Amino acid sequence: MIAAGAIRDIVKDTPAEVTRAARPQLTEPVGVSLTAVRFRHDGADHDTINADADFAPGTWTAITGASGSGKSTLLSLIAGLRRPSAGAVRWQTSSVRQAPVLGGSAWVGQQTVLLDATVRDNIRLGRPEATEQQIRRAVDAAGLSAVIEGLPEGLNTRLGEGGLGVSTGEARRIAIARAFLRGARLWLLDEPTAHLDADSEREIVEALRRATDGCTVVIATHSFPLAAAADTVLAIDDGLLHDARPVNAR
User: Which homologous superfamily does the CATH classification assign to the domain defined by 2-14+27-117+185-246?
Assistant: First the structure.
């Protein structure tokens, strides 16, 4: 099944000892520091990641680079999905400094996991106990209101597995609503506008700006419009992170 396969891809490389969180505990924007971080896949003869960087709380940082350069691996290290082979990844606020907590960040990728369930239930995966008011807030933040109004049964419209019944851009906005509902203050976005036309990409960027207001956002992307929405752009080349430059004051 599409959803099950995507979930397996996310968790298969996750060490059993990684700290897990049922709900994000940090209520402030989360800064991220990478200190002499190296990551090498088992059996590889070179590092996939070689990085030192700091991502300030409440800012957007775009990571650009060719396919296979290490962008997604870097995000997985920040999320706690993988442990570095050397060095340290730390999340920090004004009062806390800690290793990444699996489940403590929001993740939106280019493959949206949608279940054979209603739109409401797909959004509520981010917080199963969410109230109707909280779900509606997430819908508004993701720019989904008009989409919901156009569906046969609104939030009760049943989707086929993989998002049958909505477009790729609409599926991404459902994923954004789900992430918003989690309440995480650190968002990691892996090519969130991939395979979208220009209009859909613009709508997703606008939805992300609304949904992540006050949050820290790290984006792996090939998209110039998405990178241009960031405060800082970093380039990654063969795992080496470099050339930070401010591109836009938000």
Answer: P-loop containing nucleotide triphosphate hydrolases (3.40.50.300)
